Amino acid sequence: MSRLRTLCDRREALPGAVDVGRPAPRGTGPRPELGEYIHLRHAPAILVGAWRQEGPDSFTVTARWPGHGGPGAYDPRLLTQTIRQSGLLVAHAEYGVPTGHQALLSNLDITVRPGFEAPEVSDLDVDIAVTRPERRSLGMEFRIRRDGVTVCLANTKFSWVAPAVYRRVRGPHSTVDWGGWPLPEPVDRGLTGRADDRDVLLAPGTAGHRWRLRADVSNTLLFDHPVDHVPGLVLLEAAYQAAHAAAGPKPLELTDVAIGYERYVEFDEPCWIEAEWLPSLMPDWFAIAVTGHQGGEVAFQAQLRGLRP
Known about the structure:
Helix content is about 15%, strand content about 35%. It is α+β, with helices and mostly antiparallel strands. The protein has 2 domains: about 35-160, Thiol Ester Dehydrase, Chain A, CATH 3.10.129; about 175-305, Thiol Ester Dehydrase, Chain A (Roll), CATH 3.10.129. The longest helix is centred in the first third of the chain and has 20 residues, at about 75-95. It has a 12-stranded antiparallel β-sheet. It is globular and about 50 Å long.
């Protein structure tokens, strides 16, 4: 088996176009820090460590989760961050995607083993198969194992845009007064399945299962560093919280989550989150659709399924 790679064994980033159609050749330039590979600045948020290549377009990344003492059997934010960090690590370290390019996430599908719990510190292995290595994007499938047992399957597609192109696409939205927008009061944290008000992404809405998105950037797990739009994983966490709020009051056991992103969500304009129960053919299971709207347009759509509390 190939040895574990560390930051001393990096792959050279390709200049110019983001050509990720094949693994990059081994490089000898200055090595980036791990946080640069996965676009994070706060060390406590970094979950991944070493990685190794298992075969053509297949890799294994090691990860460690802290203990979870809050509501629910595990913290879904750790799960989604593990997928994101592992994918970015492989893309930058093994396929030469320049770390200065903007990563784009169009969709994310996750299936979690029923009954999965992680109350204690957990060491995990993340198996990654790069299924669609194209010039400017990488399709990836993930299998997360603990003690050899598969606890999660996921798939997504990462794309990248060069900085100059991204600035043209974003136009006047490419800069933002970080934290300068109004921060509405949160709903009761127990409604969302969270233990701290800073973790709550929902503010009271107009009626029923409708809430306003709130972005408290003092929460560095959700907002690691200044960016020009609400991160995709924050929107997924908002969907988790909306599903909990709609189902309440007991924590949900979510087993299947799928989200698709339609447009960027801006910080300085209200984004409305709506949850709707879907019919389920199985009496012990539930399904909830969560949609985000901003400026009268759909920003994201998610479906969450699992076991009834």
